[in-house]
Design goal:
Elements (H helix, E strand, L loop, with lengths): L5 H26 L5 H20 L3 H4 L5 H21 L5 H8 L2 H11 L7 H18 L11 H20 L5 H20 L8 H27 L2 H4 L5 H14 L5 H24 L8
Helix pairs in contact: 1-10, 1-12, 2-4, 2-9, 2-10, 4-8, 4-9, 5-8, 5-12, 6-8, 7-13, 9-10
Length: 293
């Protein structure tokens, strides 16, 4: 992707990450029909740890070094909390609905990036965020059944996820991308292993393959997200987080027979329109190619 500007690279990586995360969520929802949610969370992190061990083992002594151990711990805690809240919500509401509620996180991310990281927040980004948020609200339909106590879980997940993204963006200025990748897997696996022991249920041989697949998909999405937030400003890529509603609607329909209604489709079109607008504006105003990113 060296022909593209850093912003374009970040957008492509963000969309790829969101697609992979939506697939991970669909696998997790299927697993929770037979396993406790914390064991599914464990599978997500343990599978990623296997990937990390295979790919990064020769470089572990170097990558484990960090000048921001506190931020690495906090960042990993944010993502772990987001994962647990969102996976738990899938036991109560549809995949697409949970994703729509969680999609408050791009708003928090973009505003947080402007307030904390001092990134620019131009009018086109504000408009895109507001329009995309409108699309999410069309899907949520305030006052409908989906807005209930169970909606607080993906909403809380959205807050944790935005906090994780902000710390990822901050650490990306000083730390190698693989160091953050390593700490996410290591801390998440340790925490989940401790918490899952009381609820552990022995998986069948076929379940282990699914567990590993869950971790691999999550690891790939994690890497793409970290890279996206490293090469581009958070405010530029944040609106594309809304594409998760589209992907989750697809997985819900194919895997669980969750048929979207006209309101869901309308909201999805609004969200896609906002993302295409930002893509068009960013590519016109930032056309220069990246220098070896």
């Amino acid at each position: 992707m060296t022909r593209f500007s850093p912003t374009m690279q970040g957008i492509v990586l963000m969309i790829t990450a969101i697609f992979l995360f939506s697939a991970m969520d669909a696998i997790a929802k299927a697993l929770m029909a037979r396993f406790d949610v914390i064991q599914v969370v464990w599978a997500r992190y343990a599978g990623q740890m296997v990937v990390v061990a295979i790919l990064l083992l020769p470089r572990l002594p170097t990558l484990i070094r960090t000048r921001h151990i506190g931020l690495q711990l906090l960042r990993s805690a944010f993502l772990f909390s987001a994962t647990w809240c969102f996976f738990t919500s899938l036991s109560f509401i549809d995949l697409a609905a949970a994703t729509a509620v969680m999609n408050i996180h791009p708003v928090i991310l973009t505003l947080g990036a402007a307030l904390i990281l001092r990134e620019r927040l131009g009018p086109r980004r504000i408009i895109a965020i507001l329009v995309a948020l409108l699309g999410a609200l069309i899907i949520i339909r305030p006052g409908a059944d989906v807005v209930s106590w169970s909606s607080l879980l993906p909403l809380l997940a959205g807050f944790f996820y935005a906090s994780y993204s902000l710390t990822t963006r901050f650490l990306g200025r000083d730390e190698p991308i693989l160091t953050s990748f390593l700490y996410t897997a290591l801390i998440g696996t340790c925490a989940a292993t401790f918490l899952t022991l009381p609820a552990w249920q022995a998986p069948a041989a076929s379940d282990w393959a699914v567990f590993l697949g869950l971790g691999i998909v999550g690891a790939a999405g994690q890497f793409c997200l970290i890279r996206a937030l490293t090469v581009a400003e958070a405010g530029a890529v944040a609106p594309f987080g809304y594409s998760g509603v589209i992907f989750s609607t697809f997985w819900g329909l194919v895997a669980f027979g969750e048929v979207p209604d006209a309101t869901m489709l309308l909201g999805a079109l609004v969200i896609v329109g906002a993302g295409v607008y930002v893509w068009h504006r960013e590519t016109r105003l930032d056309p220069s190619p990246a220098s070896g990113a």
